[in-house]
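Page 47, continued from p. 46.
Same chain as before, 371 aa.
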Amino acid sequence: MTQPGPADHALDNISWLWRLRLPTQPLLRHLIFALCGVGILYLLTSLLSPYNDYEVGEIALYVIALAGLSLLTGMNGQISLGNGAFMAVGAYTMALLMTHTQLNFIVELLAAIGAAAVMGLLIGIPATRLKGPYLAGMTLLFALALPPIADKWSTTFGGDQGLTTTVPNAPGNINPEEWLAWIQIIGALITLVLLANLIQSRFGRSFRAVRDDEIAASLTGIHVARTKVLAFVISAGCAGLAGGFLGLSTGVVNTGEFPLTLSIQLLAAMVLGGTGSLMGMLWGAVLLVYLPQWSTSLSGYFNLGSGASAYLATIIFGAVLIVVMIAAPTGIQGGLRWTWRHISGSMSRPGAVIPPVSELPGGQSPHVPMR
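Result:
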């Protein structure tokens, strides 16, 4: 009889870890994940340079915007190409309050969320009568119409020069970039915890029911129009918070920070990360931050000129989107989830495990709430 070797002991340890069960109460489970994220990100930001801390903060703010968009599109089935404009509403609200008032920083952030949510309410009410490309076209018009407003009233919104923003003073000897990154990380973690609990609640079930079949949802007593408007308001509020954080990162708020391409890139990044998956929005945010830098480096390597880097970023983004959709139709997070299930199933049961066709990367994956 052969004695177990080191590899067998390692496999047993991995299997034991896999058998650990997290608390069944959603709020407690999500708080545990958030606390783990706090510890990891604290160590990460402490070790990184100020510029890398700035990039981590940008990833955090894009996670907020993508999480709201994922709830709207992935959970409720509404396609929006106007979340970049909602980010602009939040950014301009915060910049105006910083310029003309002496309010607390938290109050200014809440005002940015509220202003974007109110705008989402105004857009969401007529949007309840639209579906598919018609809804996308309406939100696209909103994204196109907002920048000229800021240019027309340049005395209020700063015109091309924009409005300046200031980061709250960092305590102790913490550098400003690390302090801002921590503010954005905490905002992202709070947003993810709140959205994760919302998705697990009756509101999340209503969102999914409306997405799957509006008539059936209405017959079960769900107010379809109200549910759609609520999803729009929450998504817009998340975009407003992300816009306020983006204004703090850049130090200035102007229309150049919120072009139409931003809304399109947000939608593409959401699909890449995994539509309806909150954890998948992290991968989408990483791509949004680093793909332009990679394209700039690639453009410099091939001596394509500075003007080609912006177009190259869009081309690379589209190429990555095509590859991911072919390899993993449910996005990066969906592909990772399928891989983990396959590996864990192989470890827990003897012999090969053949997953159902619905869980294969090339199959039709069922809609599942984010965990």
